[in-house]
Task: structure prediction
Amino acid sequence: MEIETDFLVIGSGIAGLCFAIKAAELGTVAVVTKKDEIESNTNYAQGGIAAVWGETDKFEYHINDTLACGAGLCKEDVVRRVVTDAPERIAELIKWGVEFTRAKGGGSNIYDLGREGGHSMRRILHAKDITGREIERALVEKANSKENIKIYENFVAIDLILSSKALGREKGGRDKCLGAYVFDAKTSVVYTFKSKFTLLATGGAGKVYLITTNPDISTGDGIAMAYRAGAEIANMEFIQFHPTCLYHPEAKSFLISEAVRGEGGVLRLRNGSTFMERYHAMKCLAPRDIVAKAIDTELKRSGDEYVFLDITHRDKDFITKRFPNIYNKCLEFGIDMSKDPIPVVPAAHYICGGVAANAFGETNIDRLFACGEVSCTGLHGANRLASNSLLEGLVFAHRAFMKISELFPAIKDAPVTISPWDARGATVSDESIVVSHNWDEIRRSMWNYVGIVRSDKRLERAGRRIDLINREIDEYYRDFLVTGDLLELRNIAIVAKLITLCAILRKESRGLHYNIDYPEKDDKNWLKDTVVSKPLSAE
Ligand code: FAD
Ligand code: SIN
Result:
């Protein structure tokens, strides 16, 4: 089955939908998304979106906070661009219908600004504690109102289609992306999507780790697809662990927003004592890597399974109005956060690395763009500042659109010939245990050996296991018909391999990468990105 479109967008979070809404002015847009249209990391974002909005704030402050958090690896020109574009892009979101929480007693245009770790000012626009849900609602509504956009739900992109495979490589020319093969999870049919431009907006990869704040869609598919296609992948070692994920045996991946600490929430050990003052001058509002590492150290020291986040000193009325979603979710598990401290643990939250993309979201493959969490643009460096990632998706969707508007007229009418999907005699698998076993083993190995605190020995151990699993999955993938689970397993295995490889390559500790065998920053040798591509080689 073949579908032809001007623009193929893979993913329906903030990056994919913002781009689709704009690209619909130029031509036809197919958005493929692997679950329901709203299901994305974006939909679960709590804290908000950072921008210089208040009267006392300045671009220079937001830029400096982002650079300080990024520990020397941010690209300053990219940081400046994103920070200075932020107010205009957010104003556009508001025009499209996003309702941010307004300040009490403020005029019609004055929004309540939250505070999060690493920010020197209040600058987080939010919709109570369900900012992502509100943004996703408005974007889905806007996209569905456009005739030129068709959203394909339960369509899982398998692999990118390259000109070198379809037509043979042009001498000296760059490979081109001509679309993607996409699996319809409802009918098990594989579609060939032909496109003039393809945007990867597949989000993050939290599911590579056993404990994560991310929803199930976060299996790093875009990073794995791009890697298989020969794209450059950068800085995969920088995995952000959020310090405060709810600890409860029945709670799956529920985040307790940093905004709770922004409103006075305090981290405590089980005996009630505070500890963050021993780790950083900003105490509980220190950058995330510092808070997560401090909790990890305290848990290892005490043998406890969790620490507490305590906001019981604030009024119940304030708590239920500012954090209605978190309050109600905790209550479901018998925790009244206005009276009880909340048990929390660090969890894999965000991947700073990804598909290397320039200031317009262009990758090293012609006609392939990447934006949002799947990409590595230089905004975050070695550690992302809180609430800068919704912003990155928003700003880069616009910048990718600007670049594509320039390029599109020249190739608009060029014909594209590609081969349909070939299942090459694969049969239905009767061994799905292979998928579930390997799924579990990868996530456990990553959690135990490539977590918050790393060592050469642990990384090598993980590397060996993950290589073996990758070989087994490759064989299995060749023999059996694809399923959604098999596609995701194949992708998390590749992403696990890339994270481990980059972590092995970086012989220092910086930002989110901490290796006890090289505990210090080494600016002389490592003030640079870790770039890998297939066949695995490092620059
Ligand atoms: P996503 O929103 O994750 O969207 C990815 C899309 O790609 C989804 O639609 C998914 O289904 C689709 N997809 C994936 N693979 C495939 C495939 N193979 N085929 C087809 N479709 C596919 N950031 C902030 O800035 N502020 C916050 O307050 C904040 N809070 C957060 C809270 C939580 C609990 C989490 C998990 C993250 C939070 N983040 C926050 C991070 C932020 O939400 C994400 O980085 C951001 O939403 C990513 O947007 P995106 O468009 O790149 O990807
Ligand atoms: C949070 O609300 O704590 C998440 C914010 C973010 O990840 O940027």
Q: What stands out?
A: The domain at 243-346 is CATH 3.90.700.10 (Flavocytochrome C3; Chain A, domain 1). DSSP finds 15 helices and 19 strands in the chain. The chain has three domains: 2-237+352-408, 243-346, 432-520. The pocket of succinic acid (ligand 2) is lined by residues 46-47, 257-259, 386-387, 389 (CB under 6 Å).
